[in-house]
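Regression test case RT-17, inverse folding.

Input:
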């Protein structure tokens, strides 16, 4: 039996919706001891987004041909999408959690970023026109399902412009004994960062390269 992308993603427990309602900024940018409800915490959150956007654009700069439309997978409340909107004509943010998309709208309006649009994962974000840059930081490393990751990249390849660039972040370290041990323990005995949906899932570079090749994407760096 086969399942559509929408069926596969909708059948997964949406823990990120719970995280978004509980403390969205903390789960997006986890810094122990920081209260993101305070002006200091909010300033740190916004600055971290600006800094990370500069790093992404610095890496992609030699390959990036235009600044028309950017698309972020796992946009959260807009930590990266809002500062990225200062550099692109339009930014499309995609997230699995409805509360994140709602907060993205609030975050964008507060910053005066009228060129940011949010889509839930199940919506047609890949049919909004050619994209100059697709980027995703600290998102794919949390996705347990390889099939969900594969479906994302099929759609990323579909919406990328012919000269478009994809910047994707994975954890490709070798699995250690400690890593394997944690993965068999129940969430109840693990610290929050090691629990399912939050912990990092390591991927083999060879598997990623096969996926990218299948989707017609060429690894530049």
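Golden output:
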């Amino acid at each position: 039996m086969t399942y559509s992308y929408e069926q596969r993603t909708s059948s997964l427990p949406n823990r990120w919706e719970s995280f978004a309602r509980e403390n969205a900024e903390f789960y997006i940018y986890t810094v122990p001891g920081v209260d993101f409800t305070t002006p200091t915490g909010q300033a740190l959150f916004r600055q971290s987004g600006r800094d990370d956007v500069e790093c992404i654009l610095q890496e992609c700069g030699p390959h990036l041909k235009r600044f028309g439309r950017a698309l972020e997978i796992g946009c959260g409340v807009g930590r990266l999408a809002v500062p990225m909107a200062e550099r692109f004509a339009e930014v499309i943010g995609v997230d699995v959690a409805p509360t994140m998309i709602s907060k993205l709208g609030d975050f964008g309006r507060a910053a005066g970023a009228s060129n940011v649009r949010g889509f839930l994962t199940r919506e047609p974000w890949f049919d909004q026109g050619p994209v100059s840059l697709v980027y995703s930081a600290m998102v794919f490393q949390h996705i347990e399902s390889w099939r969900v990751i594969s479906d994302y990249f099929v759609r990323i390849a579909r919406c990328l412009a012919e000269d478009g660039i994809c910047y994707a972040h994975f954890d490709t370290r070798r699995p250690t004994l400690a890593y394997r041990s944690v993965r068999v323990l129940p969430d109840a005995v693990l610290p929050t960062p090691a629990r399912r949906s939050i912990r990092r899932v390591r991927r083999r570079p060879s598997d990623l390269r096969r996926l990218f090749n299948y989707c017609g994407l060429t690894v530049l760096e």
